[in-house]
Amino acid sequence: MSEQATVMPASAPRLVCLGLSHRTAPISLREQVSPGRDRVEEYLDSLSGENGVEEVAILSTCNRLEFYLSATDPEGACEALLDWLAAATGPDRLPALHKGSYIHLDSDAAGHLFRVAAGVESLIVGEAQILGQVRKAAETARALGTMGEHLGPLFQRAISFGRRVRTETAIGRGNVSVASAACRSAAKRLGPLAGKELLIVGSGETAQLAGRHFVKEGVGRVRVLNRTMANARALAGELGGEAVPMDNLQSAIDSADVAVCAVGAPHFILTAEGLARTMRRRPGRPLFLIDLSMPRNIEPEAAHLHGVTLCTIEHLEEIADGNRASRESEVLHIEKLVKKETRKYLRWAASSGQNQLVTTLRRRIATIESQALDRHLRKADPEVREQVARFTGSVLRAVFHDATEYIRQLDPETESGRRHMETIRRLFALDGPAEGEKNSATSIPERRRMVS
User: Which terminus of the chain has fewer Cβ atoms in its 10 Å neighbourhood, N or C?
Assistant: First the structure.
């Protein structure tokens, strides 16, 4: 961990990022743990509120699965998370999960999210799609009530930073996306795409991008399949194509020259056996398949069929390497911006922790006063109670005035400042609510009730 990683308040919940990406884990492992589009909420629901996890957001894309946590026990939360993923995929996967995962803490976690939002961690460096995916991760967690005062500001800053990077640098100039790389790969294999028949399975952002790139290259007939016909019609209308019911997948694949799969179904929708039948019905006519789904939706064994070329996310790595080399100067510039943005975030987080401590101390004082009045003057005359309350209030405020001023003078970015803040928390029992006092931090179940 870098030197910066020590600057968060010691007693505050720690920021954690645990993930697997195209750089650390093979696609076979990533697809096993990927929640797909339909299970992100299930993952959030299962993880939040457990093992010291106060907040959680999940970034799930075709190239990465990352869990961002606000946790009081980072080590325990990460171990529990890996065990949970292993239980979902099979206990024998635990060693592979340990080997293929990475963990970032505090400033390293914040900096990593900034780099992800900027596109420098993407397979295709500079691709813009990741920014929308970061925004979607935040929206999902916020809607479910698993994102609060720690992860919320961090994600908002990351989204703003990602936008700024794309306007202030040339990182996103040109066609930079997995979809554009797949289109170039098809043209390289099949030659000019003019007049070729394109089949798109899916209607999400990746499918839309792929369709636009292929139409720009002059493909002929375009057919769009999706479980929801309204979505299929919308994309087909944009591309000047035809919407087809999902039940017609087999006949649609029989006539296609290029097929793009981008749906993220939990099973193979195109199997090697079914594609073998397709190729027997069209001898001598090649078929170029592009699987941009996570988990994969085209059976890998289809690549061994005569006349079939299967391009997956992993096959795009050669294009990605060239893309990174051509943008290296921009990446170096963005790395400097990331460091600057991380320092700004850490200063804000430290100041926020300081203000929160003062607020919590004041709330504790008010609670102690109220409880004492209730205990000793419950039956007293209201006028007497009011006079006593004014007196005790003035005494308590005077006693604690120096303490609050002392807190404001501490530097929470230093070891000494964090240690003194921790001492104040323990001295006044500020880590837990007093009897009859509500905790100042809204719990995950409370946030869920608030957003439901």
Answer: C
